[in-house]
Amino acid sequence: MPHSVTFLSVATNILKKLNVVDAMESLTLEQYRRMVDKVLEFKRLNGDLPTYAVVDGCRIGKREYIDMIERVNKFFLEMGRNPGTVDIGPIEDVSAVEKISI
User: Fold this and answer.
1) Which of 22, 47, 83, 89 is most buried as measured by Cβ atoms within 10 A of its Cβ?
2) How much is the pTM?
3) What is the rounded CA–CA span in Å between residue 92 and residue 96?
4) Is the Cα dihedral 5, 7, 12, 16 positive or negative?
5) 90 or 22, greater pLDDT
6) Whether 83 contacts 98, CB under 8 Å
7) Which of 67, 69, 70 is nearest to 89 (CA)?
8) What is the pLDDT at residue 25?
């Protein structure tokens, strides 16, 4: 048991030295819009979507930001307005073949 306590305190110290904060679980509408603007600008300049987007120090993978964009678009079409916040999460209801092809 003492080894696990030591490991946890070492890991905590490493995280503090790296200045890592708790992972973001959602974006405000303003953060989301900045992310989409950056992704679209990257695509315009490079011809392809970036492998990840960074929003206020939080790295969001390509699958996650594509899922976020699809959910916001669906919400807007159904509700006629933008959401207040956008959850960051993996694609859950897509088959494994489609996940690999993204």
Assistant:
1) 83
2) 0.65
3) 10
4) positive
5) 90
6) no
7) 67
8) 86
Tokens representing 97 are 């073949």
pLDDT, tens digit, 9 for 90 and up, residues 8-67: 444 444 444 444 334 568 899 999 999 999 999 999 999 999 999 999 888 999 999 999
Residue that is written with structure tokens 């807007």 in the block: 76
Beta strands in 12-79 (DSSP E): 26-28, 52-55, 58-61
* Dist. CA 46–CA 40, nearest whole Å: 10
For CA atoms 77, 79, 84, 87, the dihedral sign is negative
Give CA–CA dist 75/69, Å, rounded: 10
